[in-house]
């Protein structure tokens, strides 16, 4: 079952929807292939919040709302709520890896990958190359 799932990161969502983003072609192609194969993305609530804030501030409220509606209504995305054990693990990872420039959201995705046993993260963020137990896709 987990082979049909991948966590999704903010920068992947932005790359898919914003045509001027550097990774737009690769992001769009990967997303379409993934969903066409019947696979799904796990969308953590922290990633959703971060994406909405970024799209609203960098582009426009309407862009954020349109993307948010798609993410919430498309069956290709499964919302994942932050539960206390995951939050504790995220905070522990954030504190442990002070030598890295990982954001709290990066740490949260790592905690989810471990907990849910879903090692793939759809992202273009180079920080995930520093996490040996996570496979950055595409």
Note the topology:
Elements lengths: L4 E4 L1 H8 L6 H13 L3 E5 H14 L2 H13 L3 E4 L3 H13 L7 H13 L3 E3 L12 E3 L1
Parallel strand pairs: 1-2, 1-4, 2-3, 4-5
Helix pairs in contact: 1-2, 1-3, 3-4, 5-6
Looking at this protein, list some descriptive labels:
138 residues, alpha/beta, Rossmann fold, 5-stranded parallel sheet, 6 helices, 5 strands, 54% helix, globular
In short:
The chain has helices at 10-17, 24-36, 45-58, 61-73, 84-96, 104-116, and strands at residues 5-8, 40-44, 77-80, 120-122, 135-137.
Q: Any overview of this molecule?
A:
The chain has one domain (2-81, 117-137): Rossmann fold. Helices cover 54% and strands 14% of the residues. It contains 6 helices and 5 strands. Strands 3-2-1-4-5 form a 5-stranded parallel beta sheet, with helices on both faces. The radius of gyration is 14 Å and the shape is globular. The chain starts with a strand and ends with a strand. The relative contact order is 0.20. The mean pLDDT is 95.
């Amino acid at each position: 079952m987990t082979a049909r799932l991948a966590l999704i990161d903010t920068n992947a969502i932005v790359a898919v929807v914003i045509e001027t983003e550097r990774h737009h072609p690769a992001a769009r192609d990967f997303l379409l292939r993934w969903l066409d194969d019947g696979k799904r993305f796990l969308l953590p609530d922290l990633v959703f919040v971060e994406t909405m804030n970024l799209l609203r501030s960098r582009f426009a409220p309407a862009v954020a709302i349109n993307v948010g509606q798609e993410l919430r209504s498309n069956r290709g995305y499964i919302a994942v709520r932050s539960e206390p054990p995951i939050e504790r693990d995220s905070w522990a990872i954030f504190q442990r890896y002070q030598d890295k420039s990982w954001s709290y959201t990066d740490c949260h995705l790592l905690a989810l990958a471990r907990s849910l046993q879903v090692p793939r993260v759809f992202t273009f963020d180079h920080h995930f190359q520093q996490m040996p137990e996570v496979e950055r896709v595409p």
